[in-house]
# Entry
Amino acid sequence: MSETTGVRLRAPQHRISRKAIPYWTVRALPGWIVLLAIEVAGLVLPANPPGAWLVVVIVVTAVVALVHLAVMPSWRYRVHRWEVTPTAVYTQSGWFDQEWRVAPLSRIQTVDTERGPFEQLFGLAKVTVTTASAAGPLHIHGLDLDVARQLVDDLTTATAASKGDAT
# Structure
């Protein structure tokens, strides 16, 4: 624990929205569809078909895609967490490469909300908390839009009241 800030790295309390599971599934699906379409085109379009090895490649790709689409979104949902305390913002993210981050409120410089087309479709938003850290900003993905808006409001109020110069 830091003696000056009272902040320590720990597992954040809040989960993201369950809507993140279908959101991540839909986001991953186009890449697999394109890859499989290219492989199938390579099988059916040439005058001289490439042989059985491409069928094996297509089957393996399809199996890997199905496993990825079935496992990755739920796994990410179980890992992704966030929390704001009177002293800091905590995040935990990733699925293979997992990251825990903490940012003292006194170090926060900006708080932003972002919503891409798929996030808008699912009613989700991403909140980005930018600090003076060389590690870069903290991202909280998969929040319900209303939760994201409230979080931005709360962080804006808390950082305005925080003593510190955010550097």
Notes: Strands lie at 14-15, 81-84, 88-93, 99-104, 108-114, 124-131, 138-144. The first helix runs from residue 20 to 44. Helices lie at 20-44, 52-79, 117-122, 145-161. The mean pLDDT is 89.
